[in-house]
Amino acid sequence: YIDNIVAQEVLDSRGNPTVKATVILSDGTVASAIVPSGASTGKREALELRDGDERFGGKGVLKACENVEVAIADELVGLSPYNQAEIDAIMKELDGTQNYSKLGANAVLGVSMAVARAAAKSLHLPLYRYLGGSNGVIVPTPMLNIINGGAHADNDVDLQEYMIMPTGFDSFKEALRASSEIYHTLKKLLAEDGHPTALGDEGGFAPNFKNNEEPIEYILKAIEKAGYKPGDEVSIALDAASSEFYKDGKYELKGDGKVLSAEELADFYANLVAKYPIVSLEDGMAEDDWEGWKILTEKLGDKIQLVGDDLFVTNKEILAEGIEKGVANAILIKPNQIGSVSETMETVRLAQRNGYNCVMSHRSGESEDAFIADFAVALNTAQIKTGAPARGERTAKYNRLLEIERDLLYPEYIGKELFRR
Ligand code: PGA
Ligand code: ZN
Questions:
Q1: Is residue 62 within 8 Å of residue 9, measured between CB atoms?
Q2: Hey, what's the torsion of the CAs at 237, 386, 357, 266, to 10 degrees?
Q3: Over the stretch 121-139, which tens digit does the pLDDT of each residue have?
Q4: What SUPFAM superfamilies does the entry give (predicted)?
């Protein structure tokens, strides 16, 4: 049974405080989990409880830690750690709000993840096996964010993430090697042209560019120069995070000096898709612009993967609405948007039953915790987005996936099959 639960304020990759929860079982098992934190957050995400006082510029999480140690521990101590659904349901009921605004999703998710990890550990099972049973066999194809813009960098690039997707490989290990080689080639190409090679929040390069298209040109050059075939072996994925540049019903692309309607923005993307080997576009339209999303889905939905992040916020009710209205064809999965392990699993299952692809995802503020690597394998999301192949908080996830691939009896890497539609 759960003997004790404690919490501590630790730092995330941006140097901001976040919650580390630790669960101690009666058999002596101790397991912890650290909660991540986003910068370009969706409006309907579960609430991240911050102290709002003078410490850490208001970002302290002592209140959330206290909620773990008092309110939550009071309910959970004495219970079995092996019933994740029950544990998560009890915390949801204790909170009593729609979005965890009482306890804080950072408090609840920290405990939810730590309970799962403690249960796995005490059964001597790897986390992916505990959460996924014998089904978890697909090592996800990564989306690696190698040029950072938007809210994750101080440049004039409007689109937030320019990612490579190494689809044409037989294993995660080889796919990661190619990605690392491309990353280093890109660094050289940028430096040769006099661009700074300082990194953005997710480990990608973050110089200024002529427009929002030039980063794609650089990435294609890097793929080729590193000896790989664009499209066949390595494709491009974008996260526009367009809610960030949506103002008064229009999309302001500062990098291109343009203000576009949803229709025009969809044409802008369609032009990019026609020109470049782009396989996936996330948050192409803003979270409040469901009309724009419909236009985009009609235009590109049968050509590429359209991922809803801020749009769906890992929420199964909002996803159900999207499925019904035929909006997007894939969903980004961020456990801290919804607040617990069980609710994340429910959303993934709904998506998978309805033919929506799932992309497990980190946040821009991360930690050394690699929970999502195991979670992606457990749920067979087949895709994961966890930043550049650099910076410890990003490589923690990739390195964990290397380990899982090595340990699996029959690991599958299905990059080539992902976008056959
Ligand atoms: P965030 O960015 O973690 O800052 O929200 C990630 C994303 O938009 O996918
Ligand atoms: Zn996003």
A1: yes
A2: -30
A3: 999 999 999 999 999 999 9
A4: Enolase C-terminal domain-like, Enolase N-terminal domain-like
